[in-house]
Write a structure and sequence with these properties.
5 helices, about 25% helix, disordered N terminus
Length: about 190
């Protein structure tokens, strides 16, 4: 009987230890995707004048006005990032947090555990801490890299909350020169001045 009791106690202790390990492994990351989704939903129902600037190799600039119904498709690169609040995705990333005194920002970075297996190399959130009014997300930075036999593609993406977003895309196909395209879309920038 004592043997049976010890066995039950050992199983209970092991089960408890496994549950504790599961809780430690469960990552609670901020969903950068949902922050951007909220911004896009707001713009979809707004009356902002949306302007798109495209600069190719610093030589040619195009300016276009975008109907709000097309904003979601223009922002699709931001809407296709992995959602870090999903457990399957979160386990592939690690979180680093630091405070930048000069910027007065908390910087939360999500970096892949195995960078060679991920297209998204970094998702970063810059937050202004404020005890009285609450913390405010100001900026989101995303870095995407695809490198294969068809060539090289790198996108550095910047989302300024409630104002604009920008993408700098570098592409290079085998045997051809690199092409750099900067796309900036604004909708509320002038209100901050």
């Amino acid at each position: 009987m004592k043997q049976y009791f010890r066995l039950v106690l050992a199983v209970a202790v092991l089960s408890s230890a496994c549950k504790e390990k599961e809780k430690e492994d469960e990552k609670k990351f901020i969903s950068v995707l949902s922050l951007i989704e909220k911004q896009v939903a707001h713009i979809d129902t707004s009356l902002y004048a949306i302007t798109k600037y495209v600069i190719k190799d610093s030589l040619h600039i195009d300016t276009l006005y975008i109907p709000r119904e097309e904003f979601r498709s223009v922002a699709k690169d931001f809407l296709e990032i992995p959602d870090l609040s999903a457990k399957k995705v979160a386990k592939r990333y690690k979180e680093e947090t630091r405070y930048d005194e000069l910027l007065n920002r908390v910087i939360i970075s999500y970096i892949p555990v195995n960078p060679e297996k991920e297209e998204i190399q970094k998702q970063e959130i810059l937050v202004t801490p404020n005890i009285a009014t609450g913390d405010k997300v100001n900026t989101i930075l995303i870095s995407r890299v695809i490198n294969n036999r068809d060539g090289f593609l790198q996108k550095e993406m910047l989302w300024q909350m409630d104002k604009s977003f920008q993408m700098v895309t570098s592409t290079q196909k085998p045997g051809q020169p690199e092409v750099i395209t900067t796309t900036k879309v604004t909708w509320n920038e002038e209100d901050d001045q």
